[in-house]
Design brief:
It is built from one helix and 31 strands. It is mostly beta strands. The longest helix has 12 residues.
Length: 326
């Protein structure tokens, strides 16, 4: 891993502090006439090492029963925690270590259709991706350290398609996206270092829509790129800035049941929503009472009801937003 990558992720994660649990309901609205609106519903979690607390909350995902899994980037026990969708602690699993079933710095998470949980281990590319059952039992690990097929320098975000194929970004020297089947067998990869179409400068996350299109956060290029299911470039959207459709260190993304793309715009402390063609729809997380504002958003998950869960770095908590009924 080069120095630039180390500074990027360290700076992304390190700004964490405690904020007391608060529940409120504030509407976030786009200026567009037919815009979708989101409201802040609740938040849960706090700074610490006990059950239901996080030292450095990072990746987050939802399973088929809308349980929520959160990775603790520098936790020392229960590095993955499972909650109900209202934040009630269910169980924790994963401990610090260097072997296949252990974690160093867990980051990206996804759940498959059987509710197995895949976790990218940012700090341990020798065992880059770990697979656990929904009750926290270790199943397998895959990926190794290097520059070849199925190898990683800095594994980061994960995505999954309808066939349970796993997509993993490498924002280290590889600067690519790799695809595996659910058993960890390498299928393909795409992307190289650069700023041109189909090239990446620190890709940090990946999501797949219902048509199999692949969306990749190209973080240091301040954009999102869209590819077909074979990794062929289709289009890109976003640029550096603070306006609608502009980014300041985009970090993670997720797609909902309508194939809208939600992008965590970390440096602007907000989430922006786009259609599948990159058209700006709305944003939320950067308005309202201070307790509801995102301070350092890192991870994002969307459950089957369309609720959006954001792991917030500064507060070490989980913010929940929902669509306003029209």
């Amino acid at each position: 891993m080069n120095f630039k990558n180390t500074i990027f992720f360290s700076g992304m994660i390190i700004l964490l502090s405690f904020l007391i649990l608060n529940v409120s309901s504030v509407t976030y609205q786009s200026s567009f006439a037919a815009a979708i609106e989101y409201e802040h519903k609740m938040k849960w979690g706090s700074k610490g090492f006990a059950n239901g607390q996080f030292n450095q909350a990072s990746g987050i995902t939802a399973d088929s029963e809308n349980n929520i899994y959160v990775a603790d980037f520098t936790g020392r026990s229960n590095m993955i925690q499972k909650f109900t969708n209202n934040g009630s602690f269910i169980l924790g699993f994963g401990v610090l270590g260097s072997g296949p079933q252990f974690f160093t710095n867990p980051s990206g998470l996804v759940a498959d259709s059987d509710d197995n949980i895949y976790i990218a281990d940012f700090g341990n590319p020798t065992y880059a991706i770990k697979k656990f059952s929904s009750d926290g039992k270790f199943i397998d690990s895959f990926g190794s350290f290097g520059l070849g097929d199925g190898e990683f320098i800095t594994p980061g975000g994960l995505g999954i398609d309808k066939e349970n194929n796993i997509y993993a970004t490498d924002f280290g020297e590889n600067n690519n996206v790799q695809k595996f089947d659910k058993n960890g067998n390498f299928i393909m990869k795409f992307g190289t270092y650069g700023s041109g179409d189909g090239k990446f400068l620190n890709p940090t996350d990946v999501a797949i829509d219902s048509l199999g299109n692949i969306f990749v956060v190209d973080s240091f290029n301040e954009r999102v790129q869209k590819f077909d299911k074979n990794g062929n470039f289709i289009m890109k959207f976003g640029k550096s800035g603070t306006g609608n459709g502009e980014f300041n260190t985009p970090l993670e993304l997720a797609s909902d049941s309508s194939d809208n793309i939600f992008v965590v715009d970390q440096g602007n402390n907000r989430v922006q929503v786009f259609d599948r063609d990159g058209g700006y729809i709305t944003q939320f997380g950067n308005q309202g009472p201070i307790a509801d504002i995102l301070q350092n958003p890192i991870g994002i998950a969307i459950d089957s009801n369309g609720n959006v869960y954001i792991a917030d770095g500064i507060d070490s908590d989980i913010h929940v937003f929902s669509k306003v009924k029209q």
